[in-house]
Every structure is written in structure tokens, then in C-alpha cells.
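Exercise: predict the structure of this protein bound to flavin-adenine dinucleotide.
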Amino acid sequence: MLNLANPTDSLPWQETVDLVVVGSGFAGLAAAFEAKSAGCSVRILEKMKGYGGNSVISDGAVAAAGTDMQQRQGIADSKEQMLRDMLRAGLSLNHTELARTVAEQSKEALEWSIALGARYQDRVQAFGGHSRARSHLAHRTSGFSIIKPMLSACRELGLDIATQHKLQRLICNEQGRVCGVRVREGYTYPDRNSGVPKNIKARLGVVLAAGGFGNDLPLRRTQVPDLNESVDSTNKPSTTGEVLRQAMAVGAMPVHLSWIQLGPWGCPDEKGYGVGPGFASYIAMPYGIMVNPDTGRRFMNESADRKTRADAILQVGRPCICIADSRGVEQSGYDIQRCLDKGVVRGFSDPAALAAAYGIPEGILQETLQAYNDALKHQAPDPYQKNILPGSAALKHPPYYAMRVWPKVHHTMGGLQIDTRARVLDTKQRIIPGLFAAGEVTGGIHGACRLGSCAITDCLVFGRIAGKNAARNEHGNHRAV
Ligand SMILES: Cc1cc2nc3c(=O)[nH]c(=O)nc-3n(C[C@H](O)[C@H](O)[C@H](O)COP(=O)(O)OP(=O)(O)OC[C@H]3O[C@@H](n4cnc5c(N)ncnc54)[C@H](O)[C@@H]3O)c2cc1C
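Solution:
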């Protein structure tokens, strides 16, 4: 059979399945699981030797509203409140119906992962920009704890991942319906000429779940010229945007590509995500403070959304210092030994030693700590509107811990435009038959700023929707439910 998209292409279909899923992270596995459960034959393609993309290295924090765990801990929350928080952080650029879908199905997505075997810690946390504690932390604060049972569940259904299979392009028939893919089988990252071309026919369509483009320098720089090679990223090297480009080549509409999130807890003393963000996110920001090393003073709301915090640090113009003490470490329940072993976080017997190590004016740092502690004691509103967590202790229990902080590219909010059924739309807002997308390869859901822990929820919710709807995409005549 010829490739109908390109009659000069004589490569025949070498394999035929109902559905091809591109990507083996949260979104891809969720889609594949649902489609297979609905009776489809499914091929999961993964370009790397290992599976799981950014999902497997994530912290595994899942935002969900109205959950049993929140109830057990007396936290009043609702999907409406979660949506409001997402829209506020996203500067209301969010495609509201997509964000609403994530918020409305967040509890179900969390419960679904638990039903598959994912384990979560017995507490929820209020991540920056969330007005409620709704971030459910996976066992060992690791996305692997969620991906592993998802993969086992897929394997039980007879699904496996075709690793080293890189999507090269989408194949459309004469009616413009996506009916297959050209892959390079045996691809070895990053050699673009490695592997052997192969055409796979997809009777019902293709789900794109190929993640973001945080390490695609040309694409990143086209959108935000300042995000050049000098700006580090927390992502895996494989986060390049070729799948996004291929979807655009068949007419898909890209949205919000220039909204690229910088993680305001990156440490310039290590490469990539490293270990520092654990200290900054889970200890120093919630239970400590951030100071400008030149002035020794606080300058931002440490509990704000990521964009607000990253912008504030960039405004300072040099790495800032986040500080916690031993009580903060205790309260967080987070183990900082790896941060200390790597020298990313340093311990000090008193504020004077800390100030000397980072060139902070000592007297002013003492004043800053005193002012913060006084405000805590008198339960006064924080001058920077920080959401002071109940039971927060004064910063006065040695050893003191500190880390240098500088933003790194973390998440690409932009991507393919989809509808609430995960169908990809074209530049005229028409559905591209046979093409679905979910997860970080899509755009619009989070607007200008994704809230921490909302990405996994998004991937699980839309991955499942994509898999279910693609499975009902009989003969390209979409019968969505
Ligand atoms: C260090 C880190 C920590 C994070 N922690 C959290 C957290 O705690 N909570 C939260 O909500 N979010 C978190 N995030 C964000 C979240 O993990 C990601 O947005 C999410 O995992 C993306 O999932 P995905 O399925 O869309 O893509 P991915 O998990 O990245 O998977 C995409 C896969 O597609 C493959 N692929 C790409 N191109 C091709 C191609 N051409 N052919 C075949 N395969 C291809 C990739 O190799 C990859 O394996 C974190 C991100 C990072 C980097």
C-alpha cells in the first residue's frame, strides 16, 4: 500500500494497528491504557532507549481538588477554586474549558492512578499560587512511583513500549485524515539519521503525547530570544519539539508557544533539575525566606506562582539566596542529605556565617530574619503576601541552611490546540481527523503560567480522554462521547 500523503513515497505500510501513541510519559501511557482497555490494538512509540520522558524524573506531585486526603486533613477545597487558581496564575489566557476539564476531573485522575497502584504520601501541600493545600505528593516524591504502576497496568493488558522508535512525520490520506506515521526504528538519540524508516498504519488515528520543548533551543529562541543556550533547563535532553513541528506541518494550530515557564527554584551550582529544587520548593520557600544578596532583604512573595517568583529573581539580576532552618527542614519532612552531599545546600551555625558565605550584609540579614520572626509571632499579615503555613516556626533554630537560586526553563505552556475531547484543531479551528494530543505537547490549558503539580493532572486527564475518544474514532468518523 502506498503512502497516500505522498504518492512518490513507495514505502509500504509495514505494520497496522488501530492506534499509534507517540510518547511514553504520563499522557502517552494514560491514552494507551484507555484505548487498549476499549479493545484497540495500540503501538506506543518512544524515541529514547528508556521510557517515561520528563514524567519519570518529575516529583510526582498531583494537584487534585475535593479529595479524600484533603477531607481527612480538614482542607476545604473545590474544583471551582482550583480552576480560579489556574486562571489567576495563567493571567486568564487559559483556554478556560480545557482548564475546567482538568480541574473537574482532577480527583478522578488521582483516584485512577491510585487504583492502578500509585502510592502517595499521607499529606498534601500548598504549592506556590494554589490557594489551598491540594498537591498530593507521590511516594518518595518521585514521578516514577506513578509511572511504574501505569506501565505495569499497560503490560498486563499486553501493551509494551517500542523504544528507539522516533516519529519522523505524520501520514495523511487524500481526505486529510491522519492515517499513519513514518518512524525511524532503531533510532539512537541524538543521531537523526540513525534507525531505519518504517511506515505504521493507524486505523483509528494517532495520539501525540510527546511532551514539551524545553530543550529545543531553536524553537525556544524563536519564541523567546533571551532563552538561549546560557539558560539551563530542568528537562530531559529529549524535550525537543519535532512532534509539534510535524503536527503543524499537517495544519495543527499552535498556541502560546512563547509562554515558557522558568522554575524559580533552580540552582546555578548544579546542572539540570538536580537536587536543589527539592530544598527550595519543599522547605525554603514554604518555611523560610528568599533574600537579595546585595541588600540582605526579602523582595518577593515566596508562595506566589512560578512566574511571579521567577520574574522577581530575574529583576534582581543575580542568583538570590533562599534560607531555612532546622525546624523548617523538620516541618517539611523532606530529606536534604543529598542536597548537602552535593554541596548545593550549605549548613551554617548562625546567620553571621551564612551572610559571610554569600556576601550578604550581615546586620541587614539579621534585621530581615527578626522582622519575619516578629511577624510570625504576632500573626501579622506578611508584607509580601506570603501564605504563611499553619504552625510555621520562627527562623531561629540552627543549623541554618541556604542555597543559591536562579531560574531554569522548566515547562512549555504552549503547544497544539486541542478541544475538550483532545482532538487537535487546525488553523481554521476545524478538527484534524485522526489526530489527538495530550500532555505537555498541547497548549492553552495553563495560559501564561502553569501551577506546580497541575501538569501531571493535565497529562492524566487529557491522556485518558485522548485514549478513550481515539478508540471511538471508528473509520475516522469520530463518535465522541
Ligand atoms: C524535573 C521535573 C519535575 C517535575 N515535577 C512535576 C510535578 O511534581 N508535578 C507536576 O504536575 N509536573 C511536574 N513536572 C512537569 C511534568 O512532569 C511534565 O509536564 C509531564 O511529565 C509531561 O508529560 P508528557 O506525558 O506530556 O511528556 P513526557 O513525560 O516528557 O513524555 C514524552 C515522551 O515522548 C517522547 N518523544 C518525544 N518526541 C518523540 C518522537 N519524535 N518520537 C517518539 N517519541 C518521542 C519523549 O522521549 C518522552 O519520553 C516536572 C517536570 C520536570 C522536568
